[in-house]
Every structure is written in C-alpha cells, then in structure tokens.
Amino acid sequence: MVDGPVVAVRGEAYREVPPELARFTVTATARDRDRETTLTRLAERAAAVRVLLDSAEPAVERRETGDLRVWPQTRRSGERVVAWHGSVATTVTVTDFTALGELMLRLADQDQVEVAGPWWALRPDSPAHREARHAAIADALLRAREYAEALGARVTALLSLADTGVGPQPMLARAAYGGGAMAGGPPELELDPRPQTVQAAVEARFSITAPVLG
C-alpha cells in the first residue's frame, strides 16, 4: 500500500539504425524424366552453390540448408510418373554488405538457381535494443517529472516498472533472381541497406510529494 500521490506514465523510444545482417535464400532445382538424373543434377548444382559460398568467406557469416524436396510429377489421371523434380534451399547470412550484391548475382548466374532477398535485420543481442530500452526509461522519468512539476511537486521514488513488450520492427526487401548464364558474367549490383526500426516502451509508477494546488 502506497501512501501519498502517485503518477503513472508511459515511456517510449523509437530509433532507426543501420542493419547488421542481411539474409537471402538460394534455391537449386532440377527436373528430368529419370529420377536418378534429377538427383544427380540437383546434387551437382547444390555443390556448385557450396563452392561459391566457400569462396565468399568471411563475408558469409552463416549458411543453413533448409527445404530439400524431391517429388514426382504424374499425369492428371493415374499414377504414371512423367517427370521428377528436386530442389534444395540454403539460407545465407552476410555481414559484409559491400560484397552482398556481387555474391547474389554470382549465385543467380548458376544454371537452374534462384536467389531471393535480401532481408535486413539486427542481431538479437544488438546494442540498439539496449539503448532503446534505456531511452524509454529515461522518457518515462522525464514525463513523470514534468507532471509532478506541473503540480508543484517532485518525484520521490519509483514504485513499479513494466516492459510493455514492444520490440524491433524489421524492415524487409525482397527481390528474385532466376538462374541462367549471363553473357560476360554477372553485372554489378549495388544494394542500399534499409534502416531497421527499434522501439521500446515501459509503463512506470512514481510516488511524488504532495501537490501544491490553488
């Protein structure tokens, strides 16, 4: 039980900061009437992707093989297989944005390879999150002091503080590049990293001295 007046406020912070990561997906595909031929082509194209990603280190921070699919194509009636399809997708995380455009186009230059992205993001432990939370608390304290001052009072103590759960709002950008040989090699591509929105909000209750009214 709190004796005396209390002021309850909401503190907020909004920041736009440069992204720290860029992610994109690269998908190799294959199709043939013969299942073994499809699998062989798929393995060869996936290996070619791996070689390119190996050559891009250390710009590539992480890569993860995701969806591997092999499925038959049948006629509309019956179960007769007319072709086999295969695909394997890899998610690539890049930290060196100067090499990003060139890498994506080099991958897209491979036969039967699709590249999609990039998706810009911050690291989960980015200092930007901490800075936004600190700014939200400072905003709550400033508001409480302003309300108290308007009443001729002053803030004396913090009674409670709650994070309302507002988190970062990732900004995305997506483009798709189909595979196929480009005459003379891939062209240059400059990508502009999209700023990331970081938000934080808190609800706080402060005790204040007796207001001076009248």
From TrEMBL:
Domain of life: Bacteria
Pfam family, any one: SIMPL
A GO BP annotation: DNA damage response
Protein name from the UniProt record: Uncharacterized protein
